[in-house]
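Batch 3, record 17
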Amino acid sequence: ETGVTQSPTHLIKTRGQQVTLRCSSQSGHNTVSWYQQALGQGPQFIFQYYREEENGRGNFPPRFSGLQFPNYSSELNVNALELDDSALYLCASSLAGQETQYFGPGTRLLVL
Amino acid sequence: EDQVTQSPEALRLQEGESSSLNCSYTVSGLRGLFWYRQDPGKGPEFLFTLYSAGEEKEKERLKATLTKKESFLHITAPKPEDSATYLCAVTGGTSYGKLTFGQGTILTVHP
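Prediction for the assembled complex:
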């Protein structure tokens, strides 16, 4: 059974740039959620995707957007990067109707 | 709005010294309470899901319990490899798919 994978592992961008992060869900899982984790904090929910549509969103501005593909993999896009966007971005997958989510290793984003 | 508070923020134990971590929660209609372990720079690793008050689950030296207001993660005879941040999260109400996390407890076990 393949777990959740994310790419890249690390990324450095400058303020104002755009970034795309990628996630492959655990085999058999059809739902993907994205979280932002600042240093020393718990993860914050960004949004969830199911059947290629956004299925719930946290308190993040529209410059945070996402996609889910037919194979259940997903992308997180962030436009107009700000310094405060520096964080660990986590992807989690689950089976629709089940509460437990399984996390990937994360992508560390640094915005300079 | 769902809220999760974990205590203590940090806990230092000697190897073999048992203790408990606390997770207090406020949620409208709890659907699940979750415990994760997170090592520095890594993603959270799933430990337990609890669904209703009175439920208990065990895995090796860890035991999680749930009441209507809080959950405890009991660590029996910890080893240095148990050192990590332990995160508690809940899902509830109509916020499907949204895990609300506490800030975590940093556990350090000294040999």
